[in-house]
């Protein structure tokens, strides 16, 4: 486990170790993990340029003002958007690409437990957790490749909780409720492995934030949502929630530390140099520093059980099957594989 002291010391060196003017894109940043991580980035980076995407204009304006108070030298641009829609994701990415030539960091934390169909014909929860996040990454991958220094993608969901995948139901329309998290978590990790093949000089991290309070059920209706809200009210007093500040600090460490280098050219793009006993992490393939990481919020890589499961998916070519399906859905919706 990476201690909080080590995390805080690494973060305190971001301003001196990394270049000024880092460009970051935060998707799902108007509450929960995204919001607290954005604020920590704003606090520690020098002259950052941040684009953050969310649904609430009121929250966006509040967060932009709070970030400005933390670091007046930064630029914080809120983009209101429904990121469950692929065509909307494309519009957001075109807007960012019209303003920036390079992006150093992408942080994605959109998600929902609500099961319904989007206007584009995708399962809502799957659209947010896999299809939309992947579309953002694909669209902005050329800008990540143009960045000097840090090049990193963080996607916060359920790393370490990977489970069986139903290859006949990638969107999880009929996957049992108790199996959905494992199914989706595996698809998130495998997606990053597929993307890393396209951009080996970019670091890709799937992490598990732990029980952090957010708006995961916002907008839901019906008996199932009523029951889930009741369950959370009962269980919350028995759960240990990370403080918002610690959650943000640990995610900033994931986003900037050299503990997680890219698979290729990692020395150049790896981030804040390591000190003390903190070592380079093991990737999803079991190799140290291999570029794609599945980690818990303590910064530790998922164990042999997850590595074995992922290896079986590779042998069965599940990555290729899911990516082919994903590209087919993108073409059906937008007429193209990327914006």
The largest beta-sheet arranges its strands as 3-2-1-4-5-6-7
- Poorly predicted parts: 216-232
Q: Considering DSSP H and I runs of 4 or more, what fraction of the residues is helical? A: 40-55%
Biggest sheet architecture: 7 strands, parallel
Tally of helical runs:
12
Tell me the strand percentage band: 5-15%
User: What general outline do the C-alpha atoms trace?
Assistant: globular
Mean pLDDT: 91
**SSE succession:** HHEHEHEHEHEHEHHHEHH
Protein described:
The chain has 339 residues and is α/β, with parallel strands linked by helices. 47% of the residues lie in helices and 11% in strands. It has twelve helices and seven strands. The chain has helices at residues 4-12, 14-17, 32-44, 57-70, 86-99, 124-146, 177-198, 223-235, 244-256, 266-269, 304-315, 318-334; strands at residues 23-27, 49-54, 75-80, 105-108, 152-156, 203-208, 292-296. A seven-stranded parallel sheet has the order 3-2-1-4-5-6-7, with helices on both faces. α5 (86-99) runs parallel beside α6.
Provide a quick synopsis of the model.
By secondary structure, this protein is α/β, with parallel strands linked by helices. The protein contains 12 helices and 7 strands.
């Amino acid at each position: 486990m990476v201690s909080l002291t080590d995390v805080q010391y690494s973060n305190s060196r971001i301003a001196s170790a990394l270049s000024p003017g880092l460009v970051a894109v935060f998707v799902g940043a108007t509450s929960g993990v995204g919001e607290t991580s954005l604020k920590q980035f704003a606090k520690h980076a020098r002259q950052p340029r941040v684009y953050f995407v969310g649904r609430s204009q009121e929250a966006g304006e509040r967060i932009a003002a709070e970030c400005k108070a933390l670091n007046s030298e930064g630029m914080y641009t809120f983009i209101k958007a429904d990121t469950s829609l692929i065509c909307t994701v494309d519009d957001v990415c075109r807007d960012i690409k019209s303003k920036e030539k390079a992006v150093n960091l992408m942080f994605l934390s959109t998600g929902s437990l609500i099961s319904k169909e989007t206007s584009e014909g995708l399962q809502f929860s799957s659209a947010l957790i896999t299809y939309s996040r992947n579309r953002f990454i694909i669209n902005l991958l050329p800008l990540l490749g143009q960045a000097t220094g840090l090049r990193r993608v963080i996607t916060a969901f359920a790393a370490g909780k990977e489970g069986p995948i139903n290859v006949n139901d990638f969107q999880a329309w009929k996957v049992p409720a108790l199996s959905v998290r494992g199914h989706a978590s595996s698809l998130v990790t495998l997606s990053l492995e597929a993307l890393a093949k396209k951009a080996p000089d970019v670091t890709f991290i799937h992490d598990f934030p732990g029980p952090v309070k957010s708006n995961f059920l916002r907008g839901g209706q019906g008996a199932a949502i009523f029951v889930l809200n009741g369950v959370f009210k009962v269980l919350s007093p028995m759960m240990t929630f990370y403080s918002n500040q610690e959650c943000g600090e640990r995610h900033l460490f994931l986003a900037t530390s050299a503990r997680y280098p890219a698979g290729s050219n990692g020395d150049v793009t790896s981030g804040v140099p390591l000190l003390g006993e903190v070592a380079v992490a093991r990737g999803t393939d079991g190799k140290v520093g291999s570029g794609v990481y599945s980690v818990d919020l303590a910064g530790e890589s998922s164990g042999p059980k997850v590595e074995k499961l992922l290896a079986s998916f590779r042998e069965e070519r599940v990555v290729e099957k899911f990516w082919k399906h994903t590209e087919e859905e993108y073409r059906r919706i937008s007429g193209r594989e990327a914006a």
